[in-house]
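> @MW can you paste both from yesterday?
MW: sure, first one:
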Amino acid sequence: MTHEDSMALQPAWVGIWLNFLLAGAFVAPLLLLIWKFSCKAGIVTLLSSVIAAFCVQYMFDAMGYVNLLGLPHLVFWIPTVVFLIAQQSRGDMTIWPRRIIWLIMTVICISLAFDIVDVVRWVLGERAPLV
């Protein structure tokens, strides 16, 4: 079973959330590339999201659809959120890039909340595949 097949077996709200996650972590950062002063924030967010996605896929191939798949998000997105907080606070950051950064941080932080719960469950012993 592929990662996509496993996700398709999840409740409908998970699929809807994954679309929001895709928009917030992969598409919205592209908008930051428009402005010179927000370009670094866009690049860092895209890189961390792509690296995390590759790590999740690698872990899925090795372990299946388990709660630990949230770990790469924690490793890469927590520092990214800290970086984005600093970036949006810059004096030269205009309102639209700042709003986009807040949107990205909101989506990533919601995902991190799910990921923290899943990783803690795995650490506490829930290691069976979810599907």
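MW: second:
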Amino acid sequence: MKLLLWIMSIAVYALCATAALAGDFKVFGIRTDFPMSDGQPLFRDVYVNMGTNQGIKTGSSLDAFRVVTTVDELNQKTGRNISFKIAKLKVIHAETDVAVARVISFLPPESTPIGSFTNVMVGDEVEVGNKK
């Protein structure tokens, strides 16, 4: 009986860990500093809800995705959500369940459905780089 409980607890733990790795990871905050003098670099930090527990560390690459709801204009119905990559990020700091990243580059307008994006927004999805 103890062996069965032990096996069941390991199975539940494995399922929970898999669900956490496949979870929705999003941008939950953005902070921009204000330059105090001309020529001072302007940094825009992107806060995401994934960290070292998900294998993220300083220097890791992340991809940011924008989710857009399509509309069926012929039938006047909400269509489906589509997700497309908009930017590459680089992690500058990571803790257990949060990381801070900075935008390295945006995808060119010709490769995104709605055109060019100049910023990552709160609510954008993030994944470990080079998955799509």
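> thanks! Residues 2-21 form the longest helix (20 residues).
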